[in-house]
Structures are given as C-alpha cells and as structure tokens.
Amino acid sequence: MLPLISAFTHSDHDLRVLVTTGTVTSANRIAPLLPERVIHQFAPIDTAGSAKRFLDYWRPDLAIWVESELWPRLVWETARREIPMALVNARFSEGSVRAWRWVPKMFRSLLECFRMIRTQDQETVARLGAFDIAAEFLGNLKALIPPPKTEKGRIGEILRQIGDRPVWLAASTHPEDEPVVLKAHNSLRRLCLGEQPLLILAPRHPERGNQIAESIKTEGLSLAQRSNGEAPTTGTDIWLVDTLGEMDLWYAAAQMTLVGGSFGTLGGHTPFEPAMAGSVVLHGPDVANFVPVYAAFGDAGGSIAVESSEDLARHVHLLLTDPIERERMRQAAHNTHEALKPDVEALAHELIGLIGIKA
Question: In the prediction, which pLDDT does 269 show?
Fold first, then answer.
C-alpha cells in the first residue's frame, strides 16, 4: 500500500491517511516507512461493538481494503454508514473461493459493499464474476514497492567481508525451502572447481536462526551467523543472515536469488524485489501466490523454475560461470518488472473520486 499512500499524500488534496495492521511485527515494520500525514493504528477486533467504536472515532471518508482480508462486521458497518469502500490489489485463489462457495450469499453480500474492486490478476476477475461481482484487473501493487536504500558504505563493508567469492542468495526461506537449499549448496561445492561459492541464507523469520544453524551443521556445512556478529571467512560455506531490515544488502552482494516459500505449499514470495535490485531470479515449483507474475518472468527469460536440490545446484553453477547469460537474465527480469507495474496515479485518481472530491 505504500506507493498508493504516497500518491495520496502527494496529491493536490488535503488528505489524511489512516493505515491499520493486525500484528505487532507489521506495525513495527511499517511505522518508519510512513510519510507525513499518515497515522498507524491496529485494526479493531471484528465485533459489532469494536467496529462501531472504531468508525465513530475515525469517521473515514473512504475505506480501502487490501487483497482478501474481509472482516465482515467492519465491512458491513462501514457500508451501513454509506462510507465509500474499495477493494484493491484483490486476489482470491481457487482455494479461498472454494471455501466461500459454502456461504455464497455472505460472500456476495460482503463484496457488493465495495463500489470499486481492482484485482492483481485476471483469474480473480473471473472467479468473482462467477458470483456476479464486477471487478477490473489493475496489476499487482507489490511491483511498485521501491527497492530499499542503504548507505553505500554499508554495502561496501559487506562486499569487503565477502571478498571475490561467487555468491548466491536464498531469500525469505521457510522450513520447506531450507533442506533443498542446503543440499543444493553441498552439490554446488562439488561442481565448482575453483573458488568455493558462498551462500547467503536469509530466513523469512529470523527468530528461527538458531534452529537453521543446527540444520546447516547437520548438513556438514560451516557457517557464520549474523545475529551473533559473525562475518564469513574464506572457509565459510553459508552466511546465515538472521536479521531484519537488511535484505537490500544481500541483494547487492549476491549475483542471483532463490526466492523462498516456493518449495512446499506456501505459494512463493514476490520476484519483484530481487528483480528491482538487479538480481537473477530462481524459484521452486510452488508459486501459487504469483502465478501470472512468474509466468511473465519465465516467458521473458527473466526467471528459472527449479524442481529439486540437484536442479537448483546445476542452474546456480551455470549462472555463476556464465556472466553473459546472467546479465541477459538480469535485464529480462528488470524489463518484465517494468512492464508489470500498474498505474498507481490512475488508481489514486479513481479512489479520490469516490470521496466526492473533484480529482
């Protein structure tokens, strides 16, 4: 939502924005990123009394919901007060729609409260159409999230710690990803005849760091653990970067990125961030959360789907030893990302129009 919030606050209108989140972690992450004229609050518990008190206090002129987080009490109470509502970056998977088919009248009554629905994929348009709900495809707002900025001095320090070794990154990994990644790195060490590669392993949940460290040791690999203040040496196989807010450093250091959440049933994470940072993108077989996005990347030659640890090791080795192909893929990923960016200014214009302001 940050690019859309920015479009609101930079418009010619005196708009104030209230952002709600549901967890302490998300609140801590978003707080330093919010521009002026933006307030953060936790979302109310979805009871009739909480929804009414929340709306009585804030009295919004427009309510924007994101993706598929539909809290019925708050939706219905907001609609009852005739506050314009929009659902943006909407995505309903086949599984979630299948669940709603048990209560189709409820699902329809919720979605009919929205004056405007803009989706992140064409599949959602079709799935909502089956319920006679009109929606329009816009594109995925996650494509607009700007790459994080880090002082060049910090990046230079990381590069000095790594030295001239070939580096690859496994980003936002989960327990389902890590066994594949560790086995792949073991295989990669055997494939590389020259200087041994370094794997930077950045788990999605850094609090799992000690658990992952034990798995690395069990696999017979040496590690340095960033949360302990350790940096890699010449003989380090894996740099376990179990910290928050430093992902841009690892994108800058690595020549390619395996996007986590894609081995198992989690549906994968977005390829936009590594593509923006200039990294080659690899992913596992499960990218259900971003099917059309990964299809576009794959069709353009901007990403590689891998099926196993051996497959992953083979592709990483080929890319590490072929800088021309690596650059071609990096450029293809960049171009695909640019082509997939939705028009956030047009979206902001439409949303402001729902308030009754002449945009």
Answer: 95
Which residues, other chains included, contact 184 with Cβ-Cβ below 8 Å and sequence gap of 6+? 309, 310, 312, 313, 316
Q: Which two tokens stand for residue 61?
A: 């002129």
Contact 225, 209 (CB under 8 A): yes
CATH number at residue 46: 3.40.50.11720
Whether residue 115 sits in one domain with residue 221: no
Which of 20-34, 40-54, 102-116, 209-223 is predicted with the least confidence, judged by mean pLDDT? 20-34
Q: In this structure, is residue 146 part of a structural domain?
A: no
* Contact partners, residue 178, CB within 8 Å, separation at least 6: 170, 201, 203, 212, 215
Residue 168 and residue 122 in one domain: no
Containing domain of residue 49, as a range? 2-139+342-355
On whether the CB atoms of residues 61 and 83 are closer than 8 A, the answer is yes
Q: What is the number of structural domains in the chain?
A: 2
Token representation of residue 291: 């099917």
CATH number for 255: 3.40.50.2000
Residue 330: both structure tokens together: 């990096």
Rounded mean pLDDT, 241-270: 92
What does the pLDDT look like over 104-120, one tens digit per residue?
999 999 999 999 999 99
Is 326 found in the same domain as 266?
yes
DSSP 78-144: HHHTT--EEEEEE---HHHHHHHTTSHHHHHHHHTT-SEEEESSHHHHHHHHTTT---EE---GGGG
- Which tokens is 113 given? 């409260």
pLDDT of residue 357: 67
Q: What is the pLDDT of residue 194?
A: 80
